[in-house]
Amino acid sequence: MNIRKDIVLGIDIGGTNTAFGFVDEEGNCIRESALPTNASESADLFFKRLFPAIEKMQTEMNGDYNLVGIGIGAPNANYYHGTVELPPNLNWDTTNVVELVEKRFNVPAVITNDANAAAIGEMKFGAAKGMKDFILITLGTGLGSGIVVGGNLVYGHDGFAGEVGHAIVKPGGRDCGCGRKGCLETYVSATGLKRTVYKLLANRITTSKLQDISYNQLTAKTIYNLAMEGDKIALEAFAQTGELLGKALANAIVYTSPEAIILFGGLALAGDLIVKPTEESLTKNALNIFKGKAKILLSQLSDKNAAVLGSAALIWSELEKNSKAVHPC
Amino acid sequence: MNIRKDIVLGIDIGGTNTAFGFVDEEGNCIRESALPTNASESADLFFKRLFPAIEKMQTEMNGDYNLVGIGIGAPNANYYHGTVELPPNLNWDTTNVVELVEKRFNVPAVITNDANAAAIGEMKFGAAKGMKDFILITLGTGLGSGIVVGGNLVYGHDGFAGEVGHAIVKPGGRDCGCGRKGCLETYVSATGLKRTVYKLLANRITTSKLQDISYNQLTAKTIYNLAMEGDKIALEAFAQTGELLGKALANAIVYTSPEAIILFGGLALAGDLIVKPTEESLTKNALNIFKGKAKILLSQLSDKNAAVLGSAALIWSELEKNSKAVHPC
Prior knowledge:
The structure is a homodimer. Chain A is an alpha/beta fold. Helices cover 36% and strands 20% of the residues of chain A. A 5-stranded mixed beta sheet of chain A has the order 3-2-1-4-8, sandwiched between helices. In chain A, strands 11-10-9-12-13 form a 5-stranded mixed beta sheet, sandwiched between helices. The first copy, chain A, has a 3-stranded antiparallel beta sheet with strand order 5-6-7. In chain A, helix 4 (190-203) packs across helix 6 and helix 5 (220-228) packs across helix 6. Chain A is globular, with a radius of gyration of 21 Å. The two termini of chain A are 36 Å apart. The mean pLDDT of chain A is 94. At the A-B interface, helix 6 of A face helix 6 of B.
């Protein structure tokens, strides 16, 4: 008799690409693929492309595996309702993705935003293995976060908890896309780093290759490369970004007293350039009883599969919860 | 046959007084009493006074009740270790209070700080009945907090979570007892209100009865009474305190997205004087997706028994958790 191994499907719906893959309980990605999201397309058309692509992959796996659930990471996803609610970068109406997916594949599905999925991914397969209290920070175009308390992700009463990027760190500071001023993500994110470079170009008289690059051309990767070459403006931009992140984390840890803060996403690839000043600033600015406790760690999810692993971990952790739950008599 | 009703003992160890009482599962306080804490006394001597006082009360109850557990609220209490760790206002060494109490009374005991106990008290018997996600703020000499996520109190990895009073709201602002500057409790607490009155007396040329009172004589109660008489400085002090609290809460709710914020303690007795400006400021300053969601509520624990009810609720909730837990095979 052939015993088929249980696997789940992880789907990460991004503004540009959608990645999906089959993942076992140890975090091995058996098979994965991606397709363009096509932001201008309706949800209906998008899923009409996605579902056959998944089924094709299933067929290629010759029935060696048993699909037991589907985890989905998506922008503006609501865990409680199973919906994606008017995502700002997609031309979708509010869509009940969990319903659509469960109907098509006939297994349990669950959805949350990408930062929450990444947090569960780190807990199950990455830097937060064995931890019950930590905060994951995604440093991309903006700053996303997933907060884990007592081994469970914090969703809040409405499913929207964990918006640490919109904690105001400088009252009256930089304009934020949310309509307010001084939000953490206007300073600490790929975009925040760029804005800091431009502030420094205004304030300093140091010569820098950054003076040859327009705002729209400049990327965090370029700033990183120049910092590694010793460019003073680039180095100071990273130092200021880490210093402010450390101050923000000194405020963040008073809420849930996490064991670690895990940095994930593009800017985290800068490694020590961002980690060192963040650590120093957190130690300097933390309340005494928290000093030296919360570690700053880098994501340990393989970068290629991170988003798919996160979504897969989400459904594995949900299946585990359900199997442990006490059923009412 | 006489069926004895289950009750718990709630103990609240404060800097000045220690209150204790027997409470049933509906939150009725069957009998309660208090004794002076005597801050200069050792823990050993303190418990040598407390235990016989409790036992005397037990005897008076003629065995009509069955003691099933003991909940304790105390400064610098660590839930995980059962200890009170070098409390700043008591002459105690680090003391394992849970061990002492369990040995003497032979029932399960549990300890946490007063704000956490108050949060559980509100959830079981007060303004947070039926809520799973809320934040309790105690406004006394300082600002304490208890955070509830998914129906559970947030203790953090080390037992010290929920220090919202030490979130920095004005970088470089007022000196705080913690050694840093600009912590929320330096503005929002009975002491913070006093400091704001003194700042206003420096800045304004309005005549006020507050100009006749020394800093050491001034109490939050006096400021409240003068505000009710229409004193402009007193009114402005409350307005500024609420405005800053609303801003701080706009930052706090991004972490756990609570259904409500419950105000507890001395300053909460000022009612609308503090609630109205807090509500207005929270609505004005909140991130769009949170606007109008988190309610500002006043504590509903009867003031006299609040601390004892909180400690009693703590142990009731723990006993409930244990009876629901799945035992490993």
